[in-house]
Amino acid sequence: MNVTITVNGKAHTHDIEPRTSLVQYLRETLDLTGTHIGCDTSGCGACTVTLNGEAIKSCTMLAVQADGSEVTTIEGMAQNGEMHPIQAAFKEKHGLQCGFCTPGMVMVAADILKNYPKPSEDDIRHGLKGNFCRCTGYHNIVKSIQLAAETINE
Amino acid sequence: MIPAKFDYIKASSVSEAVNLLDKHGFDAKILSGGQSLLPAMKLRLNRPEIVIDINGIAGMNTIEETGDGVIIGANCTHTQILNSEVVYKNLNILHRTVQTLGDVQVRNRGTIGGSLAHADPSADYPAVVLACEANIEVEGKNGKRTIAATDFFEGIFTTALADDEIIIAVHFPKVAHGNYQKFYQSASRFAIVGVAVVHDGNAVRVGITGVSDTPYRATEVEKAYNGNSDAAEHAVDGVEVMSDHFADTEYRSHLTKVMVKRALEA
Ligand SMILES: Cc1cc2nc3c(=O)[nH]c(=O)nc-3n(C[C@H](O)[C@H](O)[C@H](O)COP(=O)(O)OP(=O)(O)OC[C@H]3O[C@@H](n4cnc5c(N)ncnc54)[C@H](O)[C@@H]3O)c2cc1C
Ligand code: FES
Ligand code: FES
Asked: Which domains occur in chain B, in start order?
C-alpha cells in the first residue's frame, strides 16, 4: 500500500505492507533508529513518538494508519544542532543512565508539557505512567521534566 | 513481533464497514484505537485476514450534548472524553473514570467503542455504562438498534453485538451525582475492582467491573441501600467472583465490599 507520512518535517512516500507497525517503518524503512522497541506490545513506552502532536506508542499503530499524518521522533527534537529544552534538561539533571527508555521519555514529556505547561510533580508522574525505566528510579526523570518546563516558560 | 498477513481496508462509511463484516464474517476484524487488537495480532492470538479501519468514518468521533443526555461517538478517544467540557459538566463520573484509564499514549489512541466491544472483564467503562444505564447504539446489515448496557455484556470478551454489527455511539443520561472508585492492578493499571455509583434521589445504581467474568449491577446493594453504606456487604451476593494471581476469590470479594462502601460514601 502506498502511504505518505511526514516525519520530522519531511514527507516520505513508500509502498509498505499493511502489517508493518509504525515503529518498524521508522526504524527499518527510514533508518530512524532513535525510537526504541522494548516490549513491542504497548506496555513500556520505549517506542513513543508524537502523531499530530500527541504522544502514541508507535509499536501499537500500523504505519498505513499514519498515512497523511505528521510524526515527530526523537531525531526531530533538536533544531539546528541545538538540543531541545527537554533533551538539555535530561542531560543537566542526569535523567538517564543506560538511555534505552530516554527517547520515549522525552517524547512523552513533550505531550505532558503541551497539556500542563506548569506541571505539578503529580502531573508529571501520572504522565509517565506508560513509560518504564529500568535504571533511574524516575526521580531524575521527573526533575528533568520540571527543569524543561521552567526553561520553556522562561 | 509481526502480525500474520492481512488486507487493510479503510472504511469511509458505517454501511461500508458493516457490509465488509457481513461478507467476511469471522475473517474480518474492526480496528479502532488498536490498543487491544494490535498487540493480540502481534502475539498471533488473533489473525484476521481483513482489517477494517473505522477511524476515518465521519460523525463517529463527536461528543454531543442533548436535553437530558450526552451522546459519545464510538471512535472518541479516551483523551477526547477526558478533555471534553460537556462530559466534565454533565457526566463527571465518566471524566473521573477516564482519568484512571491506561496512560497518556493509550488514551490518545484507544476509543470508548473499542473498549466496550472488547469487553475485557477488567476494563473501566463497563462499570460506568451499567451504573448510568447508558444505551449502546449499534448498526448492522439490518439497520440500527439500541442495546441497554445491562443487556450488552455477556461474558469474558463477549457482548451482545452480532457478527455484522459495529458500535456507533454510546448514549448517556446526564448524571449529577456519581463517582468511580478503582483498585488498580499494580502493573497494568487495569481494575482489579472498579465500582461506579450513581445516586438518584435516595436510590443508587451500582456497576462493578473486574470482579466477575461479566461486569454486573450490584442489585442486592441497590435494594439494601436506603442511605446506609453498610449495604456494601451485599456487593458479591450471587456473583461468581474471579480468582487470579493478583487477587484470589476471598480477597477480591472483600476488596469489592470495601470499594463499594467507599463509592457509596464518596
Ligand atoms: C498499556 C495499556 C493499559 C490499559 N489500561 C486500561 C485501563 O486501565 N482500563 C481500561 O479500561 N482499559 C485499558 N486499556 C485498554 C484500552 O482502553 C483500549 O483502548 C481498549 O480496550 C480498546 O479500544 P481500542 O479503541 O484500542 O480498540 P481496538 O484494539 O481497535 O479493538 C478492540 C476490539 O474491539 C473491536 N472493535 C473496535 N471498535 C469497535 C466498534 N466501534 N464496534 C465493534 N467492534 C469494535 C475490534 O474488532 C477488537 O476486537 C489499556 C491498554 C493498554 C495497551
Ligand atoms: S515497544 Fe512500544 S510500548 Fe513497548
Ligand atoms: S535509563 Fe536505562 S532504562 Fe531508563
From this structure: 7-53 (3.30.43.10), 63-173 (3.30.465.10), 178-265 (3.30.390.50)
Least-confidence region, from B44-48, B101-105, B131-135, B186-190:
B186-190
Closest CA to A7 of A62, A67, A60: A67
Instruction: Say if CB B198 and CB B177 are below 8 A apart.
Output: yes
Cα B246 to middle of ligand 1, angstroms:
22
User: Contact A55/B35, CB-based, under 8 Å?
Assistant: no
CB contact under 8 A, B34 and A61: yes
Instruction: Kindly provide the ipTM of the predicted complex, given to two decimals.
Output: 0.97
Q: Which ligand is nearest to the CA of A23?
A: 2
Residues of B in contact with A60 (CB under 8 A): 34-35, 38-39, 109
Homologous superfamily of A2-76 in CATH? Beta-grasp domain (3.10.20.30)
DSSP strand E in chain A: where?
2-7, 10-15, 48-51, 54-57, 70-72
Closest to A57 (Cβ–Cβ): which among B3, B8, B105?
A: B105
pLDDT single digits (tens) A45-102: 999 999 999 999 999 999 999 999 999 999 999 999 999 999 999 999 999 999 999 9
CATH number for the domain running over A85-153:
1.10.150.120
